[in-house]
């Protein structure tokens, strides 16, 4: 997927600790936020300053900030607001920023959205990104891959092997990877934590690659016996002859989410801009298109929180993902 599927580094222990800290901050006014409630006509809070939309994205691949720049510019051109990119080092940082009210808009994987909501973030998903020019469903696939030439033909054979995941907070690269292993009969209940705070399992050894492309590369180089990545990355590796796909599972598409604390008029304008951000609309707006955007952005479909109920349910079923409320 184009922006962060985030579906796309932080250890689980670091994630829990950092969000515990920002949860405390969330109870107070964000130091950089500006309230306009005293103006009476349009109550609400901006993450940074009135008239500025702060845009946060999951850094699932190199160049993610450049990939989202056309959308930022499109929002600015459509709404008349200034748009600033909020740099985050990993999934944990983006979730923490959302919980602390530091961003007005996010683009992320479905899991990061659910995690943020479960930690108290005030976000409303308004649109999910399409993943191909030929589809109208924003969903995609978490794909299980093995090195080309591997004797592993199904995920049941992953028992006792080294398995590459993307990140403990990744939708397709961890949560749905665990789900596929569970369906194959492996025990996905965590037995403990490693030195970095990442979960350990009895049936397989874990390696977190940090990004979808890195997961595919690590499998291709045979540092992992099995791995998981989003379909666009996995299929590209398969076409190059680097890996072979041995399984897949449908994943709800990653959302554009808007802060529910924005002033009503601002939220309406930004929501309409994002729901109308078809590829043709972005192109015809005259904003500069980046290579990453042109290669991986195919438009959106309006969605709401109901679309992500399957993620919430799966979080309850797989405790090791640590994403349940």
Task: Give a written overview of the molecule.
With 325 residues, this protein is α/β, with parallel strands linked by helices. The chain is 35% helix and 21% strand. The chain contains 11 helices and 15 strands. The strands form 4 sheets. Strands 4-3-5-14-6-15 form a 6-stranded mixed beta sheet, sandwiched between helices. The longest helix has 16 residues, at 64-79. The radius of gyration is 19 Å and the shape is globular. The relative contact order is 0.22.
Characteristic key phrases:
325 residues, alpha/beta, 6-stranded mixed β-sheet, 15 strands, globular, disordered N terminus
Provide a short characterization of the protein structure:
With 325 residues, this protein is an alpha/beta fold. It has helices at residues 12-26, 64-79, 91-99, 110-118, 171-183, 212-220, 231-239, 264-275, 279-284, 291-296, 309-317; strands spanning 34-35, 45-46, 52-57, 82-86, 105-107, 123-129, 140-147, 162-165, 192-193, 199-200, 205-208, 226-230, 243-251, 255-259, 300-302.
Furnish the topology, listing elements before pairings.
Elements: H1 12-26, E1 34-35, E2 45-46, E3 52-57, H2 64-79, E4 82-86, H3 91-99, E5 105-107, H4 110-118, E6 123-129, E7 140-147, E8 162-165, H5 171-183, E9 192-193, E10 199-200, E11 205-208, H6 212-220, E12 226-230, H7 231-239, E13 243-251, E14 255-259, H8 264-275, H9 279-284, H10 291-296, E15 300-302, H11 309-317
Parallel strand pairs: 3-4, 3-5, 8-11, 8-12
Antiparallel strand pairs: 1-2, 5-14, 6-14, 6-15, 7-12, 7-13, 9-10
